[in-house]
Amino acid sequence: MKGARERWVRTGGVELCVAELGDPERPTVVLVHGYPDSKEVWSEVAVRLAGRFHVVLYDVRGHGRSTAPRPLRGGFTLAKLTDDFLAVVDAVSPDRPVHLVGHDWGSVQSWEFVTVGRTEGRIASFTSISGPSLDHFGHWIDARLKRPTPRRAGQLLGQGAKSWYVYLLHTPVLPELAWRGPLGKRWPKILERAERVPGGDYPTGSLPSDAAHGAWLYRDNVRARLRRPRPDAYAHAPVQLITPRQDAFLSERLYDDLDRWVPRLTRRTLPVKHWVPRTRPDQVAAWIDQFVTSVDGGRPAPAATGRHADRFAGQLVLVTGAGSGIGRATAIAFAEAGARIVAVDRDAEAAARTAELARLAGAAGAWAEPADVSDEQAMEVLAEKVHHQYGVLDVLVNNAGIGLAGSFLTTTTDDWRKVLDVNLWGVIHGCRLFGARMAERGQGGHIVTIASAAAYQPSRALPAYSTSKAAVLMLSECLRAELAPRGIGVTAVCPGFVNTGITATARFTGVDEAEELRRRRRSARLYGLRNYPPEKVATAVLDAVAADRAVVPVTPEAKAARLLSRFAPRLSRRIARVEPRL
Ligand code: NAP
Description:
The chain starts with a strand and ends in a 5-residue tail after the last helix. The protein has 22 helices and 17 strands. An 8-stranded mixed β-sheet has the order 1-2-4-3-5-6-7-8, sandwiched between helices. Strands 11-10-9-12-14-15-17 form a 7-stranded parallel β-sheet, with helices on both faces. With about 575 residues, it is of the alpha/beta class. The mean pLDDT is about 95. Helix 7 packs antiparallel against helix 9 (about 205-225). It has helices spanning about 45-50, 80-90, 105-115, 135-145, 150-160, 165-170, 175-180, 180-195, 205-225, 275-280, 280-295, 310, 325-335, 350-360, 375-390, 415-440, 465-485, 500-505, 515-530, 535-545, 555-565, 570-575; strands spanning about 5-10, 15-20, 30, 55-60, 100-105, 125-130, 240-245, 265-270, 315-320, 340-345, 365-370, 395-400, 405, 445-450, 490-495, 505-510, 550-555. It binds NADP nicotinamide-adenine-dinucleotide phosphate.
């Protein structure tokens, strides 16, 4: 692993390969890998945490570069794995408790560490991803066997079916032959296709022997523990549970009774598959950072409260034009749902204020990035920085836009250029630069464009603005068709009259400055009287993304205009002829 310092820790007849990153004076975070993996599964998360923490990873015995116990049988019991963990912790953080993070079997064994007496005082917190405690699992099965209501029996059968590979791993020799043969060769491709794990330098060359040795993790522990789960497996440190909702191996229901075992439990969910440290390193690192910081600060971890917390918590959301109006309200609504927010606006101060408000609203991280969406080069620089510093977006909201009113004959080419540059080209740049990376990542995502009811309701007073918005609506529809096979949804949100600052900055053509100012004031007053709040548009945006809707008119007049354009186009054209009196 790049930049890591390595050392060896001897314990119980094996030598463990331990890697460290970051400043040892900072809080220590120990990352424990699962099956069939080595510590490299954590490399993407580790580098993201290294700036703020002392990060420690080790190859579990028999995996990666750590040596294997002899004989193998009986060499992988949870008691021995706990000895290893304590030996590593004694070496890397002798005086302070560590923050423990486990994925898959790394989490299964970490549950043991955090629930046995001899580690008390050595663990400050535990983040568990995709790996239940075998004791809790045993009690979960018992409870369902004792009272098998149809729902509970269904849960039992559901998890039983997901555990097919556990039965196979208990057969002698076969798993070893498969892993050292064809399965070991095909595994990287299987991970890429079925689990959407990006290719590259993971998994490492040690995979066949990791997988063969790791079979003993199951054989040495699973049956015995599930039959006789410990009655006192209570966690002695706060636990953050991250549950991927599309895990092919573990049912979400497994954690239903967890509050009974964990007095201080923070739950997070993610709409992804099993290999979260590889597919969502930004999100995982952000949650670990937030949890560790809150535990060390003696505060409870901030919990997302918004209606869509389940859907958006931890997701990376970028909103353009976030310095005011609909953009700011949307950024805050995503923040309330626990998302990580990048607030983009050409007004740096306004963007910074939105980021601050987002943090106060519960964002799992919020940053301000000044940029003009109509400036292609600036957008390229922005995309590069965002991808490098915060990761690939889960949701992009192309919101930045400007108003332009006045007849076609009074609209200059310069006026056209300005409105198309921001309202259309801004959206094109956003979709191209951020959408491409979303598609490349292969984990889905969502793109929102804030169009307008003017996209489908013609008006003699808004030819340029309406044209820009109609183009945005069509772009959204085309993009939706193109990106659907990649699991990326595209939504065009079409508000009517919303009480924001857009009227105060809109350009009115064909009139002198004094008249333009008067019209701005008058339209601001009318929008104020209409008083439809941008927060309601923000709610519509989150609802639309959650439900993956294609076109969403917001406000009653936008809905009415949509119906007219589809079912009474002649009436719609009549309305277009009405000259607004400003
Ligand atoms: P707003 O209050 O004026 O907010 C727009 C924000 O975008 C402002 O902070 C603005 O900054 C920023 N912005 C403008 N041009 C930009 C650029 N080139 N690069 C980066 N940021 C830029 O307006 P809003 O009503 O919330 O509008 C948001 C979106 O909703 C727009 O696309 C608009 O067309 C659409 N919409 C609004 C209504 C409505 O009734 N309000 C109706 C339908 C659709 P500055 O303040 O510096 O200009």
